[in-house]
Write a structure and sequence with these properties.
single chain, mainly alpha, two-stranded parallel sheet, 47% helix
Length: 191
């Protein structure tokens, strides 16, 4: 892998809407975690047929989320993510833009939870070393917006060197690892 980092900010409502499909989100996550893959290689992982994956990969390519990757032979058609990460920046004055962001973020949250549940179901097949390294934690923090922004920036800086698509020096035994972080203010406590 080991390519330059490129994080894309998505502001176009049409691109947000195009991405806001469960199979497309899953395909993009798959390519960002494992690198170039064909539609057939993605099919089982995203619970869709190879032909459905091929269609959705073409739609993702139309909006610049994926692109063809170099093929080892002329018969395969692998795809790769065009960025190593994405941020959503909808137009706060546009309800349709906010709705597309909410739909997309909701899908990502659902897929993150599904990935954690799938891990728990297969935990008995995971080595002791990986089980000991795994963390499923939840924290309730008391912070200001400035403190939260600083914390997320510090965590981001710690995580960056391990992004699979840009890491050039993974040691033997390195595997793709899922990490998601959600930080948001809770509703005010009601008396």
């Amino acid at each position: 892998m080991g390519r330059p980092e490129h994080r894309r900010t998505i502001t176009d409502i049409r691109a947000l809407t195009a991405l806001a499909h469960p199979v497309r989100v899953a395909l993009l996550n798959q390519l960002m975690a494992y690198g170039p893959r064909t539609a057939s290689q993605c099919a089982d992982a995203v619970a869709a047929s190879a032909s459905a994956c091929s269609y959705h990969l073409r739609q993702l390519a139309r909006w610049g989320f994926v692109e063809p990757a170099p093929a080892e032979d002329g018969r395969e058609r692998p795809w790769q993510a065009t960025a190593t990460g994405f941020a959503l920046d909808p137009d706060p004055g546009n309800p349709a833009s906010l709705a597309a962001q909410q739909t997309l973020a909701g899908m990502q949250i659902d897929q993150d939870a599904d990935a954690a549940r799938a891990f728990l179901r297969r935990a008995d097949t995971v080595s002791r070393e990986w089980l000991d390294a795994t963390e499923l934690a939840r924290f309730s923090l008391l912070m200001t917006p400035t403190e939260l922004a600083g914390l997320t920036a510090a965590l981001d800086a710690l995580i960056r060197p391990y992004i699979g698509l840009i890491r050039t020096d993974p040691p033997a035994g390195a595997k793709p690892v899922h990490l998601d972080l959600k930080a948001f203010p809770l509703p005010e406590e009601r008396a």
